Amino acid sequence: LFWQQAVQPMSLKRWAVRQIAGLLSDYLEGITEQNLQASLSLEVGIVEIRHVRVQPGLLRDQGLELLSSDVSVSARIPWRNLGSEP
Q1: For residue 16, what are the contacts with CB-CB under 8 A and spacing of at least 6?
Q2: Residue-level pLDDT at 86
Q3: Whole-angstrom distance between the N-terminal and C-terminal Cα of the chain?
Q4: How many Cβ atoms are within 10 Å of 28's Cβ, its own excluded?
């Protein structure tokens, strides 16, 4: 695959941090290489982000209040089945 050839192993995590931070920037802040753990394979990607903050005002607009804005997120991404699995 092109991205495997274009992204060196040491910069793969840096690339993943930029992509994930960009996608989640409306919801979470503070995503860094230190708090992002990623296991990326051709079959499945597992991403875990620890100790990030929910964007201020995100839930306030919905009339909700958080007791703490420090959260952790874990996701399993089936790369090969993205079009057929939810």
Answers
A1: 36, 38, 40, 47
A2: 59
A3: 24
A4: 19
* pLDDT at res. 16: 76
For residue 73, what are the β-bridge partners? 49
Task: Write out the DSSP string of the chain.
Answer: -HHHHHS-HHHHHHHHHHHHHHHHTTTEE---TTTEEEEE-SS-EEEEEEEEEEPTTTTGGGT---S--EEEEEEEE-GGGTTT--
pTM equals 0.62
pLDDT of amino acid 8: 53
* pLDDT value at 42 more than 70: no
Q: Compute the average pLDDT of residues 18-45.
A: 81
Length of the chain: 86
